[in-house]
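Sample entry copied in:
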Amino acid sequence: MSTRGLLIAAGLLLLMLGALSFLQKRTPGTDRGERESKRVTMLPVRDAERIELKTAKGSFSFRKPKDGDWQLLKPVETGADATAVGQLLSEVQFVEKMQAFPQEARTEANLQTFGLGQPTRTLAVATPGGELSVEIGRETPIPGGVYAKVKQPQVGEQLFVVQKQLAEAMDKDLNAWREKRVFPLVVPEVKELWMRQGATEVEIQKTEEGAWMVRKPVEAPADPAAVHSLLGEISALRAADFVTDSEGDLALYGLTAPAQSFEVKSKATNRVLQIGLANPRDTNQVFARTADRPFVFTLSKSTLDSLGKLPERVRDRRLATFGSTSQITKIEFGGRGGEYRLEKQGEGWIAWWGGSNRVADPARVNRWLDAVLNSRANRFLATEDPAKLGFAKPRLTAVLSWTVPSTNGAAVKMETLSFGEETKDEVYVQNSAITGAMATTVALIRETPENGMGWLVRRLLPEDFGPVRGLIWSSRSQRREYRAGDDGRWRATGSEADVPESAGYATRMQDLEVIRWTGIPAKKDFAKTEVELVVEGEGGKRTAISLGRALVDGTAPIRREGGEFAGLVTRQQLDWLKRDPGLSSSPASTDSSGR
C-alpha cells in the first residue's frame, strides 16, 4: 500500500474512534447512563420538605421550613438530626434496583410472599417534583436485597428488589432521629450569658460597641475570642441519652433546684440550660434540661467541667486596656523613687521631675509600653486584703493617659497600674479600670525605672558627637595617645605602625552605654580614678571621661565632662576600659553596653 493510502486509512480510523467515543458519551449505555437507569427514582429527593416514616421502631414525622432546619414533629416536637435525615434522603435518592418486576407480577399473592401485604417499613417523601412512596418488605433469598413497592408521579406503582441499605437507613429509633445538640446558639447574635453555680454568679455582657465585659463576680474586660469559644462549646453540647420527654417529677433528676444553670440572651430569644444530679447508672453523666422544653436528657460531665470555670476562662488577661502604644500621651509615675512623668512630644518623649525636664529615650519608653500592652495575667487574685498583696502602699504606680473620640471631639481616658509585692517569679498588679488583682511575670516591674533618670538615653557620649577619631588614655602612671589618620588607619603618637586594636576600642567607646544613671557625680566616687580618658571627634570635638574605682558589686562609676549625671558601668565594661587601647582585645561575649 502506498504512503498516501496508509495516511488515508489512519485518518479514517481516527475519525471512527472519535465518532465511537462521541456516541458512547451521548448514549444511555455508558457508565453514567447505566447508573441512572438502575436508580429507583429521579425525583429531587434531597430537596424534600416533608417525610413520613413508619418502622418497627416507631412512627416519625419530619418537616423542613423554608430556609430552616429539619424538625421532628412526631412522636415529639424537637429538632431533627440533620445528619441522620440527610443520610436517609441520600439513600432514597441513589438507591439502585437489583431487579424490576413486570406489571403482571404485581399480584396479591406475590405481595404477600414479598412481605408487601403488611410492609415492615413505609416512607413518604414530599419533593418539589411530587410525592414518593416506598414500602419495604422481606429480605430476598439472595443476600443484600429487600423487596420494595415504589409509587411516584408519571411512573405509578412498581415492584423492585432494592439494596438492603435503604431499609437499614430507615431503621433508627427516636434518639437517632432527634437533634443531639441540646442548646444550639447563633453565636454572633448572643448578647448576654449568665452562669449560676451554688453561690457563684457569673455575668458576661456585650456592650453597645461590641466589646465583651465580665460584670460578675468582678467588673473586667472579657476576651472576645475566649467568649466565642465558650459559646461555641455550649452550642455544641450533645445529649448522651434522652431520659424522658415529659417533665414529670423533676426532683428525681435534681432539676427543681439545679446545681448549675446557663442563661443565654440573644436578639430574639432567652434560653436556660439547667444541670441536675449525676446519673446513678453512669456517674460520668449528669441529668439536664432546657427550661423551654419538657425533655430531660443526660450530658457528659467532662463537657461541663471547663464551663464551670467561666471567670478564669473568659476574662481578658491583659494588664492594660489601651489598644495601641501610639495612643499613650502621658505616663505619671509614683513610688519609692519619687514622682515624675513622661510626656509625649511629636515622636519623642520628655521626662519631667524636680521642676525641670530632660529628653527621654523614645525607644526605651516604647519598649516599656509594648511590655505593658503585651503582658498577660498568669492568674487572677482575690483582693479581700489589699495590704497582704502590697496594694495598701504600692511600690510603684503608673497612670497612663490617652485620648479617644467622643461626641465633643475627644476625651481623655486614664487607668492606673499599681504594682504590689513580688515573688521570685511574679509581681502583683492592680488596674484601676478592672476589679480584682492579677499576678504577672516579675520582669515587668524590674524593667520599670523607679525614677526619671531611668528613662534617659544611656549613651555616655553626646548623641551628636559622631565617630571617635582620637583617644588619650591615662591610668595610674601610664599615658597613651592613639589617632586615626586621613587614611582611616589608627596609629600611636610618634609611630608609623598600625594599631588596629585601638580602632576597636574607639568603636566600643563610641557606643558605650551606662547600665543606669546615678545622679549628680559624687566627689568621693572619683577621688581615685582608674582611668582618665580624653575622647576626640571630628571637627575639633573633645570630651573627658573619668572612670572611678570598682564598687562592691563589681560595677564602677563613670562620668563625662559636662554631663549632668554620673552613671555605672558593668564589670566587663570596666575591664576593657582599663586596658591600654593599643593592647585591648574585643571579647566575643562582650559588647560596648556590657550586655
In short: The longest strand covers residues 409-422.
